[in-house]
Amino acid sequence: MENCIFCKIIKGEIPSAKIYEDEDMLIIKDVNPQAKIHYLLLPKQHFANIVEMTDAQAQTLARCIKKLSNMVDELGLQDGFRLVSNKGAHACQSVEHLHIHILGGQQLDDRMC
Ligand code: AMP
Protein backbone atom coordinates (compact mmCIF):
# COMPACT_ATOMS: atom_id res chain seq x y z
CA MET A 1 0.00 0.00 0.00
CA GLU A 2 1.21 3.47 -0.92
CA ASN A 3 2.73 5.47 1.96
CA CYS A 4 2.94 2.44 4.25
CA ILE A 5 6.45 2.26 5.70
CA PHE A 6 6.27 -1.51 6.26
CA CYS A 7 5.07 -2.10 2.67
CA LYS A 8 8.08 -0.05 1.53
CA ILE A 9 10.39 -2.20 3.71
CA ILE A 10 8.80 -5.37 2.29
CA LYS A 11 9.34 -4.08 -1.27
CA GLY A 12 12.95 -3.17 -0.45
CA GLU A 13 12.36 0.54 -1.01
CA ILE A 14 13.47 1.32 2.57
CA PRO A 15 16.41 -0.54 4.15
CA SER A 16 15.86 -2.77 7.17
CA ALA A 17 17.81 -5.21 9.30
CA LYS A 18 16.28 -8.33 7.78
CA ILE A 19 16.39 -11.52 9.87
CA TYR A 20 14.17 -13.80 7.77
CA GLU A 21 12.03 -13.65 4.64
CA ASP A 22 9.72 -16.05 2.82
CA GLU A 23 6.63 -15.77 0.63
CA ASP A 24 4.37 -14.88 3.59
CA MET A 25 6.41 -12.65 5.86
CA LEU A 26 9.47 -10.66 6.76
CA ILE A 27 11.11 -10.62 10.19
CA ILE A 28 13.22 -7.51 10.84
CA LYS A 29 14.92 -5.90 13.84
CA ASP A 30 12.92 -3.08 15.42
CA VAL A 31 14.78 0.25 15.08
CA ASN A 32 13.81 1.22 18.63
CA PRO A 33 14.18 -1.99 20.66
CA GLN A 34 12.18 -2.34 23.87
CA ALA A 35 13.88 -5.60 24.86
CA LYS A 36 17.28 -7.22 24.42
CA ILE A 37 15.81 -8.97 21.39
CA HIS A 38 13.08 -7.05 19.56
CA TYR A 39 12.00 -8.22 16.13
CA LEU A 40 8.95 -7.36 14.07
CA LEU A 41 7.06 -10.01 12.11
CA LEU A 42 5.52 -8.31 9.07
CA PRO A 43 2.99 -10.23 6.96
CA LYS A 44 3.71 -9.26 3.34
CA GLN A 45 0.06 -8.63 2.57
CA HIS A 46 -1.07 -5.23 3.83
CA PHE A 47 -3.86 -5.04 6.39
CA ALA A 48 -3.99 -2.55 9.22
CA ASN A 49 -4.70 -4.74 12.23
CA ILE A 50 -6.40 -7.97 13.31
CA VAL A 51 -9.84 -6.35 13.22
CA GLU A 52 -9.43 -5.65 9.48
CA MET A 53 -8.00 -9.08 8.75
CA THR A 54 -9.88 -11.43 6.40
CA ASP A 55 -10.17 -15.15 7.10
CA ALA A 56 -7.51 -15.83 4.44
CA GLN A 57 -5.17 -13.28 6.04
CA ALA A 58 -5.81 -14.88 9.45
CA GLN A 59 -4.73 -18.23 8.02
CA THR A 60 -1.56 -16.64 6.63
CA LEU A 61 -0.83 -15.02 9.98
CA ALA A 62 -1.32 -18.34 11.80
CA ARG A 63 1.11 -19.93 9.32
CA CYS A 64 3.65 -17.15 10.01
CA ILE A 65 3.41 -17.71 13.78
CA LYS A 66 3.79 -21.46 13.34
CA LYS A 67 6.94 -20.86 11.26
CA LEU A 68 8.22 -18.54 13.98
CA SER A 69 7.73 -21.34 16.52
CA ASN A 70 10.09 -23.47 14.44
CA MET A 71 12.79 -20.75 14.47
CA VAL A 72 13.00 -20.14 18.23
CA ASP A 73 16.58 -21.37 18.54
CA GLU A 74 17.95 -19.57 15.49
CA LEU A 75 16.29 -16.33 16.62
CA GLY A 76 17.88 -16.60 20.10
CA LEU A 77 14.48 -16.93 21.79
CA GLN A 78 15.02 -20.26 23.54
CA ASP A 79 14.74 -18.66 27.02
CA GLY A 80 11.27 -17.31 26.29
CA PHE A 81 9.60 -14.53 24.37
CA ARG A 82 6.50 -12.38 24.17
CA LEU A 83 4.36 -11.70 21.08
CA VAL A 84 2.50 -8.36 21.04
CA SER A 85 0.31 -6.75 18.40
CA ASN A 86 -1.07 -3.29 19.12
CA LYS A 87 -4.41 -2.27 17.61
CA GLY A 88 -5.29 1.41 17.47
CA ALA A 89 -3.81 4.62 18.78
CA HIS A 90 -4.92 3.97 22.37
CA ALA A 91 -2.93 0.74 22.30
CA CYS A 92 0.07 2.65 20.88
CA GLN A 93 -0.18 1.32 17.31
CA SER A 94 1.95 3.73 15.29
CA VAL A 95 2.25 1.82 11.99
CA GLU A 96 -1.01 0.81 10.33
CA HIS A 97 0.30 -2.42 8.81
CA LEU A 98 -0.28 -5.39 11.06
CA HIS A 99 2.90 -6.45 12.79
CA ILE A 100 3.77 -8.75 15.65
CA HIS A 101 6.40 -7.55 18.10
CA ILE A 102 8.68 -10.44 19.11
CA LEU A 103 10.30 -9.56 22.44
CA GLY A 104 12.91 -11.79 24.01
CA GLY A 105 15.89 -11.77 26.32
CA GLN A 106 16.07 -9.33 29.19
CA GLN A 107 13.19 -6.85 29.08
CA LEU A 108 14.31 -3.23 28.84
CA ASP A 109 10.89 -1.84 29.48
CA ASP A 110 8.10 -3.79 31.15
CA ARG A 111 5.30 -1.46 30.04
CA MET A 112 2.99 -2.79 27.37
CA CYS A 113 3.93 0.06 25.02
P1 AMP B 1 3.56 -0.06 16.98
O1 AMP B 1 3.77 1.10 17.87
O2 AMP B 1 3.00 -1.26 17.65
O3 AMP B 1 2.81 0.32 15.71
O4 AMP B 1 5.02 -0.52 16.53
C1 AMP B 1 5.72 0.04 15.44
C2 AMP B 1 7.13 -0.36 15.60
O5 AMP B 1 7.80 -0.17 14.38
C3 AMP B 1 7.89 0.44 16.65
O6 AMP B 1 8.41 -0.44 17.64
C4 AMP B 1 8.99 1.13 15.85
O7 AMP B 1 10.20 1.22 16.57
C5 AMP B 1 9.10 0.22 14.65
N1 AMP B 1 9.60 0.85 13.43
C6 AMP B 1 9.17 1.99 12.86
N2 AMP B 1 9.85 2.23 11.71
C7 AMP B 1 10.72 1.20 11.58
C8 AMP B 1 11.71 0.87 10.59
N3 AMP B 1 11.93 1.66 9.52
N4 AMP B 1 12.44 -0.25 10.75
C9 AMP B 1 12.23 -1.04 11.84
N5 AMP B 1 11.31 -0.79 12.80
C10 AMP B 1 10.57 0.31 12.67
Describe what you observe in this structure.
The chain has 113 residues and is an alpha+beta fold. The protein has helices at 5-11, 55-69, and strands spanning 18-21, 25-29, 35-43, 81-84, 100-107. The model has no long low-confidence stretch (mean pLDDT 93). Bound molecules: adenosine monophosphate. Adenosine monophosphate (AMP) is lined by residues 5, 14, 16, 28, 30-32, 40, 86, 92-95.
Write a concise synopsis of the structure shown.
The protein has two helices and five strands; from the N terminus they run H-E-E-E-H-E-E.
Provide the β-strand percentage band: 25-35%
Largest sheet composition:
5 strands, antiparallel
Bound molecules: adenosine monophosphate
**Order of H and E elements:** HEEEHEE
Widest sheet: strand ordering: 1-2-3-5-4
What gap, in angstroms, lies between the N and C termini? 25 Å
Q: Low-confidence runs (pLDDT<50, min 5 residues)? A: none
Descriptive tags:
113 residues; alpha+beta; five-stranded antiparallel beta sheet; binds adenosine monophosphate
List the helices and strands and how they pair.
Elements: H1 5-11, E1 18-21, E2 25-29, E3 35-43, H2 55-69, E4 81-84, E5 100-107
Antiparallel strand pairs: 1-2, 2-3, 3-5, 4-5
Adenosine monophosphate is lined by residues 5, 14, 16, 28, 30-32, 40, 86, 92-95.
